[in-house]
Design a protein that fits this description.
Shape: globular
Radius of gyration: 18 Å
Mean pLDDT: 92
Strand content: 15-25%
Number of strands: 10
Helix content: 25-40%
Strand order of the largest sheet: 8-1-2-9-10
């Protein structure tokens, strides 16, 4: 009996110990647009390619970088509607935390909660895994900048710099060559844009990429405006 006997069952392991629906979810991530993140000594930057299939689409209505709390944000590669569900659940969870403790939810706890939701969808009947991987940028309670990756299996990892989606292997190799332990946030933003440009199809503009940053100075996560992104692109060219 081959893998085809297990491929439609989410909750049944195949003979090699794999859940094939999770493997297929990872394929959906690998087919998504490239996203990447870099954790600098004074902040975190996340960036993504949001090139669209048609020039008629209003790019201002398409958002891949989202605030979850005042000090944390998500970006994804994979299936957009699945991402929207996770963003909604994470925002609800973070507001519940605030109502209970009267302080913002640390990014590490936000990541654990989101990873737990994704893991539940790997062992429940009548559902399928989320077809997205997330990069989460934020600061912990002590102000330390953090970058995490959360996968469809519910596994999560802390990273200094990483990439997901299409062309992630080349992007990671580029980051390995350019990353430095003492990198500052401004340098990290430039490195992120250079990494995106490496595998970008066509011209990279402020309209077809998105960038989010959180600085340890104020601990606030913010999406860069198209004008700010264009300034960085002009500096990098």
């Amino acid at each position: 009996m081959g893998d085809s006997a297990y491929s439609f069952s989410l909750t049944t392991f195949n003979r090699t110990g794999k859940l094939l629906q999770i493997e297929y979810a990872l394929n959906a991530v690998a087919n998504g647009r490239t996203s990447l993140g870099i954790c600098a000594k004074d902040g975190v930057v996340i960036a993504t390619d949001k090139k669209l299939a048609s020039t008629l689409v209003d790019t201002e209505q398409v958002r891949k970088v989202e605030n979850i709390t005042d000090g944390a944000g998500f970006v994804y590669s994979g299936v957009g509607p699945d991402y929207r569900v996770l963003v909604r659940k994470a925002r609800k969870s973070s507001q519940s935390y605030y109502l209970t403790y009267r302080e913002p939810q640390p990014v590490s706890q936000l990541v654990k909660g989101t990873a737990s939701v994704m893991q539940e969808y790997t062992q429940s009947g009548g559902v399928r895994p989320f077809g997205v991987s997330l990069l989460v940028a934020g600061t912990d309670a002590d102000g330390t900048p953090r970058l995490y990756q959360v996968d469809p299996s519910g596994a999560y990892f802390g990273w200094k710099a990483t990439a997901i989606g299409k062309n992630y292997v080349n992007a990671k190799n580029f980051l390995e060559r350019r990353y430095q332990e003492d990198m500052e946030l401004e340098d990290a933003i430039h490195t992120a844009l250079l990494t995106l440009r490496e595998g970008f199809e066509g011209e990279m503009t402020s309209q077809n990429i998105e960038v989010g940053v959180v600085s340890t100075t104020d601990g606030v996560f913010r999406r860069l405006t198209p004008e700010q992104i264009q300034d960085y692109l002009d500096e990098a060219s």
